[in-house]
Structure to design on (424 residues):
RNA sequence: GGCGGGGUCGCCUAGUGGCCUAGGGCAGCGGUCUUGAAAACCGCCGUGGGGCAACCCACCGUGGGUUCAAAUCCCACCCCCGCCGCCA
Protein backbone atom coordinates (compact mmCIF):
# COMPACT_ATOMS: atom_id res chain seq x y z
CA UNK A 1 0.00 0.00 0.00
CA UNK A 2 1.33 3.37 -0.97
CA UNK A 3 1.80 6.37 1.34
CA UNK A 4 -1.42 8.39 1.04
CA UNK A 5 0.15 11.49 2.54
CA UNK A 6 2.88 11.46 -0.05
CA UNK A 7 0.29 11.02 -2.76
CA UNK A 8 -1.72 14.00 -1.53
CA UNK A 9 1.39 16.15 -1.51
CA UNK A 10 2.74 15.05 -4.85
CA UNK A 11 0.44 13.00 -7.09
CA UNK A 12 2.72 13.63 -10.05
CA UNK A 13 5.46 11.28 -8.90
CA UNK A 14 2.85 8.54 -8.55
CA UNK A 15 1.57 9.21 -12.06
CA UNK A 16 5.14 9.00 -13.34
CA UNK A 17 5.78 5.82 -11.39
CA UNK A 18 2.65 4.14 -12.70
CA UNK A 19 3.65 5.08 -16.23
CA UNK A 20 7.18 3.71 -15.73
CA UNK A 21 5.67 0.38 -14.69
CA UNK A 22 3.43 0.35 -17.71
CA UNK A 23 0.40 0.71 -15.45
CA UNK A 24 -2.50 3.15 -15.59
CA UNK A 25 -1.58 6.65 -14.30
CA UNK A 26 -5.30 7.51 -14.34
CA UNK A 27 -5.67 5.38 -11.18
CA UNK A 28 -3.86 8.14 -9.33
CA UNK A 29 -6.48 10.72 -10.21
CA UNK A 30 -9.30 8.34 -9.34
CA UNK A 31 -7.69 7.75 -5.98
CA UNK A 32 -7.21 11.46 -5.27
CA UNK A 33 -10.94 11.99 -5.92
CA UNK A 34 -11.96 8.95 -3.87
CA UNK A 35 -9.72 10.05 -1.02
CA UNK A 36 -11.37 13.47 -0.99
CA UNK A 37 -14.82 11.87 -1.04
CA UNK A 38 -13.88 9.65 1.88
CA UNK A 39 -12.69 12.58 3.90
CA UNK A 40 -15.91 14.52 3.25
CA UNK A 41 -18.12 11.53 4.09
CA UNK A 42 -16.11 10.93 7.27
CA UNK A 43 -16.48 14.53 8.43
CA UNK A 44 -20.22 14.39 7.76
CA UNK A 45 -20.55 11.24 9.85
CA UNK A 46 -18.41 12.61 12.69
CA UNK A 47 -20.63 15.68 12.99
CA UNK A 48 -23.89 13.73 13.08
CA UNK A 49 -22.51 11.13 15.46
CA UNK A 50 -21.37 13.78 17.88
CA UNK A 51 -24.83 15.32 17.77
CA UNK A 52 -26.35 11.93 18.46
CA UNK A 53 -24.15 11.38 21.49
CA UNK A 54 -25.08 14.72 23.01
CA UNK A 55 -28.76 14.03 22.40
CA UNK A 56 -28.41 10.57 23.89
CA UNK A 57 -27.26 12.03 27.19
CA UNK A 58 -30.22 14.39 27.23
CA UNK A 59 -32.55 11.45 26.65
CA UNK A 60 -31.00 9.57 29.54
CA UNK A 61 -31.60 12.47 31.91
CA UNK A 62 -35.07 13.51 30.70
CA UNK A 63 -38.48 12.17 31.68
CA UNK A 64 -42.13 12.39 30.67
CA UNK A 65 -43.15 14.59 27.75
CA UNK A 66 -39.69 16.06 27.38
CA UNK A 67 -38.26 12.60 26.99
CA UNK A 68 -40.84 11.66 24.37
CA UNK A 69 -40.00 14.74 22.34
CA UNK A 70 -36.27 14.10 22.57
CA UNK A 71 -36.79 10.49 21.58
CA UNK A 72 -38.67 11.54 18.47
CA UNK A 73 -35.75 13.75 17.47
CA UNK A 74 -33.29 11.01 18.33
CA UNK A 75 -35.06 8.60 16.05
CA UNK A 76 -34.74 10.98 13.11
CA UNK A 77 -31.11 11.58 13.91
CA UNK A 78 -30.47 7.84 14.11
CA UNK A 79 -31.66 7.45 10.53
CA UNK A 80 -29.34 10.26 9.42
CA UNK A 81 -26.41 8.71 11.28
CA UNK A 82 -27.11 5.33 9.73
CA UNK A 83 -27.23 6.84 6.26
CA UNK A 84 -24.03 8.80 6.85
CA UNK A 85 -22.36 5.65 8.16
CA UNK A 86 -23.31 3.75 5.04
CA UNK A 87 -22.05 6.56 2.82
CA UNK A 88 -18.82 6.70 4.78
CA UNK A 89 -18.40 2.95 4.46
CA UNK A 90 -18.92 3.02 0.72
CA UNK A 91 -16.54 5.94 0.21
CA UNK A 92 -13.90 4.22 2.35
CA UNK A 93 -14.28 0.93 0.50
CA UNK A 94 -13.85 2.69 -2.83
CA UNK A 95 -10.75 4.55 -1.66
CA UNK A 96 -9.29 1.41 -0.06
CA UNK A 97 -9.78 -0.54 -3.24
CA UNK A 98 -7.90 2.10 -5.24
CA UNK A 99 -5.12 2.55 -2.72
CA UNK A 100 -4.51 -1.20 -2.81
CA UNK A 101 -4.51 -1.21 -6.60
CA UNK A 102 -1.64 1.27 -6.85
CA UNK A 103 1.89 -0.13 -7.10
CA UNK A 104 4.87 1.04 -5.10
CA UNK A 105 6.85 4.06 -6.27
CA UNK A 106 9.72 3.01 -8.50
CA UNK A 107 13.27 3.81 -7.48
CA UNK A 108 14.78 6.71 -9.44
CA UNK A 109 17.81 4.57 -10.40
CA UNK A 110 15.79 1.62 -11.72
CA UNK A 111 16.18 1.40 -15.48
CA UNK A 112 12.99 2.51 -17.23
CA UNK A 113 11.29 0.08 -19.56
CA UNK A 114 10.15 -3.51 -19.80
CA UNK A 115 11.57 -6.98 -19.21
CA UNK A 116 14.41 -6.53 -21.72
CA UNK A 117 15.51 -3.11 -20.52
CA UNK A 118 17.47 -4.31 -17.50
CA UNK A 119 20.92 -2.91 -16.76
CA UNK A 120 23.81 -5.34 -16.23
CA UNK A 121 25.59 -4.35 -13.02
CA UNK A 122 28.31 -7.00 -12.86
CA UNK A 123 29.52 -10.35 -14.18
CA UNK A 124 31.21 -12.90 -11.97
CA UNK A 125 32.93 -16.21 -12.51
CA UNK A 126 34.17 -17.69 -15.75
CA UNK A 127 32.00 -19.28 -18.38
CA UNK A 128 33.66 -22.53 -19.41
CA UNK A 129 34.63 -23.06 -23.01
CA UNK A 130 33.16 -26.54 -23.35
CA UNK A 131 34.16 -26.84 -27.01
CA UNK A 132 37.79 -26.15 -26.17
CA UNK A 133 37.59 -28.73 -23.42
CA UNK A 134 36.16 -31.21 -25.86
CA UNK A 135 33.00 -31.62 -23.80
CA UNK A 136 29.64 -32.10 -25.46
CA UNK A 137 27.26 -30.08 -23.32
CA UNK A 138 24.49 -32.15 -21.79
CA UNK A 139 21.51 -30.34 -20.30
CA UNK A 140 20.48 -30.74 -16.67
CA UNK A 141 17.75 -33.28 -17.40
CA UNK A 142 20.05 -35.58 -19.34
CA UNK A 143 22.67 -35.27 -16.61
CA UNK A 144 20.15 -35.59 -13.80
CA UNK A 145 18.57 -38.72 -15.26
CA UNK A 146 21.97 -40.33 -15.80
CA UNK A 147 22.89 -39.57 -12.18
CA UNK A 148 19.58 -40.97 -10.98
CA UNK A 149 18.91 -37.55 -9.47
CA UNK A 150 15.86 -36.24 -11.33
CA UNK A 151 12.72 -38.10 -12.45
CA UNK A 152 10.24 -35.92 -14.32
CA UNK A 153 8.42 -38.79 -16.00
CA UNK A 154 7.18 -40.17 -12.73
CA UNK A 155 6.57 -36.61 -11.55
CA UNK A 156 4.13 -36.23 -14.43
CA UNK A 157 2.60 -39.65 -13.78
CA UNK A 158 1.94 -38.92 -10.12
CA UNK A 159 1.21 -35.19 -10.09
CA UNK A 160 1.11 -33.93 -13.68
CA UNK A 161 3.34 -31.80 -15.84
CA UNK A 162 5.85 -29.49 -14.13
CA UNK A 163 6.24 -31.90 -11.20
CA UNK A 164 9.31 -34.00 -10.49
CA UNK A 165 10.92 -36.38 -8.05
CA UNK A 166 14.40 -35.75 -6.71
CA UNK A 167 15.91 -39.17 -6.14
CA UNK A 168 19.18 -40.50 -4.74
CA UNK A 169 21.93 -37.89 -5.03
CA UNK A 170 19.28 -35.45 -6.28
CA UNK A 171 17.48 -35.67 -2.94
CA UNK A 172 20.80 -35.42 -1.10
CA UNK A 173 21.76 -32.46 -3.25
CA UNK A 174 18.67 -30.55 -2.13
CA UNK A 175 19.39 -31.25 1.53
CA UNK A 176 23.04 -30.27 1.10
CA UNK A 177 22.13 -27.00 -0.63
CA UNK A 178 19.60 -26.14 2.04
CA UNK A 179 22.03 -26.96 4.82
CA UNK A 180 24.78 -24.90 3.20
CA UNK A 181 22.37 -22.00 2.76
CA UNK A 182 21.10 -22.18 6.31
CA UNK A 183 24.65 -22.41 7.65
CA UNK A 184 25.66 -19.34 5.65
CA UNK A 185 22.54 -17.46 6.75
CA UNK A 186 23.14 -18.31 10.39
CA UNK A 187 26.80 -17.30 10.15
CA UNK A 188 25.65 -13.98 8.70
CA UNK A 189 23.35 -13.41 11.66
CA UNK A 190 20.02 -14.25 10.05
CA UNK A 191 17.53 -16.19 12.15
CA UNK A 192 16.61 -19.54 10.58
CA UNK A 193 12.87 -20.06 10.26
CA UNK A 194 10.68 -22.85 8.96
CA UNK A 195 7.36 -21.13 8.25
CA UNK A 196 3.92 -22.49 7.39
CA UNK A 197 3.35 -22.90 3.65
CA UNK A 198 -0.42 -22.43 3.98
CA UNK A 199 -1.59 -18.94 4.85
CA UNK A 200 -4.80 -16.97 5.29
CA UNK A 201 -6.04 -14.54 2.64
CA UNK A 202 -4.88 -11.59 4.75
CA UNK A 203 -1.24 -12.73 4.55
CA UNK A 204 -1.53 -13.17 0.80
CA UNK A 205 -3.16 -9.78 0.32
CA UNK A 206 -0.70 -8.07 2.60
CA UNK A 207 2.25 -9.18 0.58
CA UNK A 208 0.62 -8.12 -2.69
CA UNK A 209 0.22 -11.56 -4.23
CA UNK A 210 -3.53 -11.34 -4.75
CA UNK A 211 -3.20 -8.44 -7.16
CA UNK A 212 -1.70 -8.92 -10.58
CA UNK A 213 -0.05 -12.20 -9.50
CA UNK A 214 -3.30 -13.82 -8.28
CA UNK A 215 -3.45 -16.10 -11.31
CA UNK A 216 -0.33 -17.90 -10.12
CA UNK A 217 -1.57 -18.68 -6.63
CA UNK A 218 -3.03 -22.01 -5.50
CA UNK A 219 -6.10 -21.65 -3.31
CA UNK A 220 -7.66 -24.28 -1.07
CA UNK A 221 -11.32 -23.49 -1.53
CA UNK A 222 -12.64 -25.71 1.27
CA UNK A 223 -10.53 -24.00 3.93
CA UNK A 224 -10.00 -20.54 2.44
CA UNK A 225 -6.24 -20.92 2.64
CA UNK A 226 -3.52 -20.30 0.08
CA UNK A 227 -0.39 -22.25 -0.76
CA UNK A 228 2.47 -19.79 -0.66
CA UNK A 229 4.55 -19.14 -3.77
CA UNK A 230 7.47 -18.11 -1.58
CA UNK A 231 8.40 -17.96 2.11
CA UNK A 232 8.32 -14.19 1.67
CA UNK A 233 4.59 -14.40 2.41
CA UNK A 234 4.66 -16.04 5.86
CA UNK A 235 7.90 -14.23 6.77
CA UNK A 236 6.42 -10.82 5.97
CA UNK A 237 3.19 -11.67 7.78
CA UNK A 238 5.19 -13.03 10.76
CA UNK A 239 5.24 -9.57 12.35
CA UNK A 240 1.84 -8.54 10.98
CA UNK A 241 -0.12 -6.15 13.24
CA UNK A 242 2.97 -5.68 15.40
CA UNK A 243 4.84 -2.59 16.49
CA UNK A 244 8.56 -3.38 16.67
CA UNK A 245 10.93 -1.31 18.81
CA UNK A 246 13.30 0.58 16.50
CA UNK A 247 16.28 -0.66 18.50
CA UNK A 248 15.32 -4.26 17.60
CA UNK A 249 15.76 -3.47 13.89
CA UNK A 250 16.95 -4.63 11.49
CA UNK A 251 15.49 -8.09 11.98
CA UNK A 252 16.93 -10.54 9.48
CA UNK A 253 15.42 -13.96 8.81
CA UNK A 254 16.07 -16.93 6.53
CA UNK A 255 13.04 -19.12 5.88
CA UNK A 256 13.06 -22.57 4.28
CA UNK A 257 9.75 -23.54 2.71
CA UNK A 258 8.12 -25.25 -0.22
CA UNK A 259 6.85 -22.87 -2.91
CA UNK A 260 3.79 -23.47 -5.06
CA UNK A 261 3.14 -21.70 -8.34
CA UNK A 262 0.40 -22.35 -10.86
CA UNK A 263 2.56 -20.93 -13.67
CA UNK A 264 -0.57 -19.87 -15.53
CA UNK A 265 0.19 -18.43 -18.93
CA UNK A 266 3.55 -20.16 -19.31
CA UNK A 267 2.36 -23.09 -21.42
CA UNK A 268 5.10 -24.19 -23.72
CA UNK A 269 7.70 -22.11 -21.89
CA UNK A 270 10.62 -23.85 -20.18
CA UNK A 271 8.85 -27.19 -20.41
CA UNK A 272 11.96 -29.36 -20.29
CA UNK A 273 13.33 -30.50 -16.96
CA UNK A 274 12.88 -28.69 -13.67
CA UNK A 275 13.49 -25.07 -14.61
CA UNK A 276 9.87 -23.98 -14.27
CA UNK A 277 7.82 -26.18 -11.92
CA UNK A 278 4.64 -26.01 -9.87
CA UNK A 279 6.37 -26.88 -6.64
CA UNK A 280 9.93 -26.43 -5.35
CA UNK A 281 11.79 -25.72 -2.13
CA UNK A 282 13.61 -22.48 -1.42
CA UNK A 283 15.52 -20.64 1.27
CA UNK A 284 14.35 -17.04 1.31
CA UNK A 285 15.90 -14.17 3.26
CA UNK A 286 13.68 -11.48 4.70
CA UNK A 287 14.52 -8.24 6.49
CA UNK A 288 12.49 -5.75 8.52
CA UNK A 289 14.43 -2.48 8.67
CA UNK A 290 14.07 1.24 9.25
CA UNK A 291 13.18 2.92 5.92
CA UNK A 292 16.43 4.91 5.95
CA UNK A 293 18.41 1.66 6.16
CA UNK A 294 16.52 -0.10 3.37
CA UNK A 295 19.00 0.53 0.58
CA UNK A 296 21.95 -0.65 2.67
CA UNK A 297 20.00 -3.79 3.63
CA UNK A 298 19.16 -4.36 -0.02
CA UNK A 299 22.87 -4.26 -0.86
CA UNK A 300 23.45 -6.69 1.99
CA UNK A 301 20.93 -9.18 0.61
CA UNK A 302 22.50 -8.95 -2.82
CA UNK A 303 25.91 -9.58 -1.26
CA UNK A 304 24.58 -12.69 0.53
CA UNK A 305 23.13 -14.00 -2.73
CA UNK A 306 26.45 -13.47 -4.47
CA UNK A 307 28.29 -15.13 -1.60
CA UNK A 308 26.16 -18.24 -2.19
CA UNK A 309 26.65 -18.26 -5.96
CA UNK A 310 30.38 -17.70 -5.51
CA UNK A 311 30.52 -20.61 -3.05
CA UNK A 312 28.83 -22.82 -5.65
CA UNK A 313 31.39 -21.61 -8.22
CA UNK A 314 28.71 -20.60 -10.70
CA UNK A 315 29.25 -17.99 -13.41
CA UNK A 316 26.56 -15.33 -13.10
CA UNK A 317 25.67 -11.75 -13.71
CA UNK A 318 23.73 -9.23 -11.63
CA UNK A 319 21.04 -7.16 -13.29
CA UNK A 320 19.11 -4.10 -12.17
CA UNK A 321 15.56 -5.04 -13.17
CA UNK A 322 13.65 -2.47 -15.24
CA UNK A 323 10.61 -0.64 -13.87
CA UNK A 324 8.13 -2.56 -16.01
CA UNK A 325 9.22 -5.88 -14.52
CA UNK A 326 9.29 -5.10 -10.80
CA UNK A 327 6.01 -6.57 -9.58
CA UNK A 328 3.72 -4.32 -7.56
CA UNK A 329 5.63 -4.27 -4.25
CA UNK A 330 9.24 -3.57 -5.18
CA UNK A 331 10.77 -0.16 -5.65
CA UNK A 332 13.91 -1.82 -6.95
CA UNK A 333 14.93 -5.36 -7.75
CA UNK A 334 18.27 -7.03 -8.47
CA UNK A 335 18.35 -10.47 -10.08
CA UNK A 336 21.31 -12.81 -10.11
CA UNK A 337 21.30 -14.80 -13.31
CA UNK A 338 23.47 -17.88 -13.65
CA UNK A 339 24.91 -19.03 -16.94
CA UNK A 340 23.07 -22.07 -18.26
CA UNK A 341 25.40 -23.79 -20.75
CA UNK A 342 22.70 -25.83 -22.51
CA UNK A 343 20.75 -22.67 -23.23
CA UNK A 344 23.78 -20.49 -23.90
CA UNK A 345 22.33 -17.68 -21.82
CA UNK A 346 21.88 -16.32 -18.31
CA UNK A 347 18.76 -17.36 -16.40
CA UNK A 348 17.36 -16.01 -13.14
CA UNK A 349 18.50 -17.94 -10.08
CA UNK A 350 17.90 -15.47 -7.29
CA UNK A 351 16.17 -12.14 -6.88
CA UNK A 352 16.17 -9.47 -4.19
CA UNK A 353 13.56 -6.75 -3.78
CA UNK A 354 13.36 -3.59 -1.72
CA UNK A 355 9.68 -3.09 -0.91
CA UNK A 356 10.24 0.07 1.16
CA UNK A 357 7.12 0.57 3.31
CA UNK A 358 4.70 -0.88 0.75
CA UNK A 359 4.20 -4.27 2.44
CA UNK A 360 4.42 -3.03 6.01
CA UNK A 361 1.54 -0.61 5.44
CA UNK A 362 -0.67 -3.39 4.16
CA UNK A 363 0.35 -5.76 6.94
CA UNK A 364 0.27 -3.02 9.61
CA UNK A 365 3.84 -3.61 10.74
CA UNK A 366 5.40 -0.55 12.30
CA UNK A 367 8.40 0.53 14.30
CA UNK A 368 8.39 2.50 17.52
CA UNK A 369 11.16 5.08 17.60
CA UNK A 370 13.05 6.28 20.66
CA UNK A 371 10.69 9.24 21.04
CA UNK A 372 7.71 6.88 21.25
CA UNK A 373 6.33 7.71 17.82
CA UNK A 374 5.27 5.02 15.41
CA UNK A 375 5.82 4.73 11.66
CA UNK A 376 5.85 2.12 8.91
CA UNK A 377 9.08 0.21 8.36
CA UNK A 378 10.74 -1.20 5.25
CA UNK A 379 10.69 -4.85 4.19
CA UNK A 380 13.16 -6.54 1.88
CA UNK A 381 13.42 -10.05 0.54
CA UNK A 382 15.97 -12.07 -1.37
CA UNK A 383 16.44 -15.64 -2.55
CA UNK A 384 19.31 -17.47 -0.93
CA UNK A 385 18.77 -20.70 -2.80
CA UNK A 386 15.95 -21.86 -5.06
CA UNK A 387 16.63 -25.58 -5.17
CA UNK A 388 15.74 -26.81 -8.68
CA UNK A 389 17.32 -23.95 -10.57
CA UNK A 390 20.43 -24.17 -8.43
CA UNK A 391 20.64 -27.89 -9.14
CA UNK A 392 20.34 -27.12 -12.85
CA UNK A 393 23.17 -24.60 -12.69
CA UNK A 394 25.42 -26.92 -10.70
CA UNK A 395 24.84 -29.97 -12.91
CA UNK A 396 25.36 -28.09 -16.15
CA UNK A 397 28.27 -25.86 -15.18
CA UNK A 398 30.21 -28.53 -13.33
CA UNK A 399 29.61 -31.43 -15.75
CA UNK A 400 32.62 -33.42 -16.90
CA UNK A 401 33.32 -35.24 -20.17
CA UNK A 402 32.22 -38.62 -18.76
CA UNK A 403 28.85 -37.30 -17.60
CA UNK A 404 29.89 -37.01 -13.98
CA UNK A 405 29.50 -33.76 -12.07
CA UNK A 406 32.12 -32.09 -9.90
CA UNK A 407 30.79 -30.98 -6.53
CA UNK A 408 31.88 -27.44 -5.62
CA UNK A 409 34.20 -27.45 -2.60
CA UNK A 410 31.79 -25.52 -0.36
CA UNK A 411 29.12 -28.17 -0.90
CA UNK A 412 31.36 -31.20 -0.34
CA UNK A 413 31.06 -31.21 3.49
CA UNK A 414 27.27 -31.14 3.20
CA UNK A 415 27.02 -33.72 0.44
CA UNK A 416 29.75 -36.07 1.59
CA UNK A 417 31.22 -36.60 -1.88
CA UNK A 418 33.34 -34.72 -4.38
CA UNK A 419 31.90 -36.11 -7.57
CA UNK A 420 28.45 -37.27 -8.66
CA UNK A 421 28.83 -40.35 -10.84
CA UNK A 422 26.37 -41.58 -13.48
CA UNK A 423 24.65 -44.84 -12.58
CA UNK A 424 25.93 -47.82 -14.52
C1' G B 1 -15.39 -33.20 15.03
C1' G B 2 -18.10 -32.89 20.30
C1' C B 3 -18.55 -30.38 25.08
C1' G B 4 -16.91 -26.55 28.40
C1' G B 5 -14.02 -21.92 29.67
C1' G B 6 -12.06 -17.50 27.69
C1' G B 7 -10.58 -13.06 24.12
C1' U B 8 -11.19 -5.25 27.23
C1' C B 9 -5.82 0.58 25.58
C1' G B 10 2.32 -3.42 26.50
C1' C B 11 0.87 -7.08 30.87
C1' C B 12 -3.05 -8.10 34.75
C1' U B 13 -7.88 -6.65 35.62
C1' A B 14 -13.08 -3.76 36.58
C1' G B 15 -17.17 -3.10 33.71
C1' U B 16 -24.28 -7.28 32.08
C1' G B 17 -28.02 -1.05 28.05
C1' G B 18 -27.28 5.76 29.21
C1' C B 19 -22.03 10.51 34.07
C1' C B 20 -17.90 4.67 30.12
C1' U B 21 -15.22 10.82 28.02
C1' A B 22 -13.56 2.39 29.20
C1' G B 23 -12.01 2.66 35.85
C1' G B 24 -7.88 0.43 38.73
C1' G B 25 -3.08 -2.03 39.29
C1' C B 26 1.76 -3.38 37.14
C1' A B 27 5.56 -2.12 33.82
C1' G B 28 7.65 2.17 31.23
C1' C B 29 8.93 7.58 30.77
C1' G B 30 9.55 12.55 33.14
C1' G B 31 9.76 15.19 37.77
C1' U B 32 9.93 16.30 43.35
C1' C B 33 12.79 14.49 47.39
C1' U B 34 17.96 12.15 48.06
C1' U B 35 25.26 12.27 48.44
C1' G B 36 23.35 8.11 45.27
C1' A B 37 19.60 4.47 45.07
C1' A B 38 15.07 2.62 46.95
C1' A B 39 10.48 4.14 48.92
C1' A B 40 6.85 7.89 48.77
C1' C B 41 4.44 11.65 46.07
C1' C B 42 3.13 14.39 41.31
C1' G B 43 2.62 14.18 36.04
C1' C B 44 2.78 11.53 31.30
C1' C B 45 1.68 6.91 29.38
C1' G B 46 -2.90 2.64 22.95
C1' U B 47 -3.75 2.91 17.37
C1' G B 48 -5.90 5.26 13.17
C1' G B 49 -8.54 9.48 10.81
C1' G B 50 -9.92 14.88 10.71
C1' G B 51 -8.53 20.01 12.48
C1' C B 52 -3.69 25.74 12.90
C1' A B 53 -5.67 24.70 17.63
C1' A B 54 -9.16 23.83 21.61
C1' C B 55 -11.14 19.55 20.16
C1' C B 56 -14.01 15.81 17.33
C1' C B 57 -14.71 10.71 15.31
C1' A B 58 -13.63 5.37 14.98
C1' C B 59 -11.65 0.95 17.36
C1' C B 60 -13.33 -3.47 23.81
C1' G B 61 -11.33 -10.89 18.80
C1' U B 62 -14.03 -10.29 13.52
C1' G B 63 -18.54 -9.44 10.80
C1' G B 64 -23.75 -8.68 10.96
C1' G B 65 -28.26 -7.45 13.86
C1' U B 66 -31.63 -5.21 17.87
C1' U B 67 -32.05 -0.09 20.13
C1' C B 68 -32.97 6.84 20.37
C1' A B 69 -28.38 4.72 22.70
C1' A B 70 -24.15 -1.51 22.70
C1' A B 71 -17.76 -3.38 25.76
C1' U B 72 -22.66 -4.78 27.75
C1' C B 73 -28.38 -7.93 24.39
C1' C B 74 -28.99 -11.42 19.76
C1' C B 75 -26.75 -14.29 15.43
C1' A B 76 -22.58 -16.13 12.72
C1' C B 77 -17.50 -16.74 12.42
C1' C B 78 -12.15 -16.60 14.08
C1' C B 79 -8.44 -17.45 17.73
C1' C B 80 -6.57 -19.28 22.60
C1' C B 81 -7.05 -22.80 26.93
C1' G B 82 -9.10 -27.54 28.97
C1' C B 83 -11.40 -32.36 28.40
C1' C B 84 -13.34 -36.27 24.97
C1' G B 85 -13.16 -38.60 20.09
C1' C B 86 -10.26 -39.41 15.57
C1' C B 87 -5.55 -39.19 13.03
C1' A B 88 -0.25 -38.57 12.76
Amino acid sequence: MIDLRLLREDPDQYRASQAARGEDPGLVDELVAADEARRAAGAQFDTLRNEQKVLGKQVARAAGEEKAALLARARELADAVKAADTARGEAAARADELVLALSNLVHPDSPRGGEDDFRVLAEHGTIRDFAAEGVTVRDHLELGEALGAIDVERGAKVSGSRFYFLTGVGALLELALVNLAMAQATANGLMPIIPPALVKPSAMEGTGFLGQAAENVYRLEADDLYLVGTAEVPLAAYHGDEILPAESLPRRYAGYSPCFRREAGTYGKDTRGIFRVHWFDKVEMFIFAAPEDAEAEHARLLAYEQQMLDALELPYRVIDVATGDLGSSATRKFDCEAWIPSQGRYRELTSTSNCTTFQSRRLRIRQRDADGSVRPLATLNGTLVAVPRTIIAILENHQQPDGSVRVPAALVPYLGREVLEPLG
Observations:
- Chain A has a mean pLDDT of 91.
